[in-house]
Amino acid sequence: MRNVRVRLAYDGSRFYGWQRQEGFPSVQEAVEDAIESLTGERVCVHGSGRTDTGVHALGQTASFHLETALSDERLLHALNAHLVEGVVLEALETCPDQFHAQKSARGKRYVYLVHNQPFRSAFGSAYWHRVHGTLDLAAMRRAARHLVGEHDFSSFASAGSPRKSNVRRITALHILRRRERLAMFVQGNGFLYNMVRAIAGTLLEVGRGKLIPEALPEILGARDRSRAGPTAPAAGLYLLSVRYEEPCWKLSRSDQEKSPGSQAGSA
User: Which listed residue (33, 52, 72, 136) is catalytic?
Assistant: First the structure.
């Protein structure tokens, strides 16, 4: 029996979230079914955390125990051949037995994508949140600075899974704009239920002029969800990566060639 971790990407519009649920397609179910179809083994795949219906991932991490003697490379390719459309395993490696995708996680990075234009796009409405009207980017950035650091984020958390504390640390929050597209990058040591979407919704209210940047400290201090902005739609949210203390994902030959001066090893 060996412990295996995978890095996967998926189109959240095709699934009812990460967690397996009877009668609805989920990412967890898709991966578990692929493993069973290939190896005959029924395993439980643990994700770094749940993503809701419609939320996408470019760098979700999951782990599971498996008996198969297939090499990591062959297992990666074979599992991808058995996976349904909309989910892809991008990396796979045997890892220390104590590794657990959720319990070992030390931080995550998300991006929230906004299409800021007056008319809806003919393509891809499931992959960003459309906002019409002018957005004050400078005001949004000033507001974002108040959220960086360690705070009680009760005002930005929907009722959901029980937690011991609502205190989390945001280590970076950057807002980038390119023409009609806006991206909000959020990095932290952990996130509450719907926290990133609530942050995005609140910053968009600032951009619209419905909230002033200086209101953010008061909103944080209130610890009241009704004081912050709305929860932004799921379509714009992507899980970019999960951080662990131990090195993950050995560099492939092609990765090394793309990285000038890199040496063989882990990244």
Answer: 52
Q: Is 52 designated active site?
A: yes
How far apart are the C-alpha atoms of 172 and 186, rounded to whole Å? 6
Domains in the chain (CATH in brackets) are: 2-103 (3.30.70.580), 106-241 (3.30.70.660)
Kindly compute the dihedral angle of the four CA atoms of residues 197, 198, 204, 209, in this order, to the nearest 10 degrees.
170
Q: pLDDT, tens digit, for every residue of 93-138?
A: 999 999 999 999 999 999 999 999 888 777 778 999 999 889 999 9
- Which residues contact residue 31 at a Cβ distance below 8 angstroms, ignoring those fewer than 6 apart? 6, 8, 45, 62, 79, 83, 87, 89
- Cα of first residue to Cα of last residue in the chain, in angstroms, is 26
| Helix, strand and coil in the chain, % to nearest 5 | 30, 30, 40
Give the residue from 11, 15, 59, 51 showing the smallest Cα distance to 33: 15
Q: Are 166 and 152 in contact (CB under 8 A)?
A: yes
Q: Give, in degrees to the nearest 5, the angle at Cα 261 between 257 and 266.
A: 75
pLDDT digits (tens, 9 = 90+) for 155-166: 999 876 667 899
Considering only CA atoms, which of 149, 199, 151 is closest in space to residue 170? Answer: 149
Angstrom distance (rounded) from CA 105 to CA 102: 5
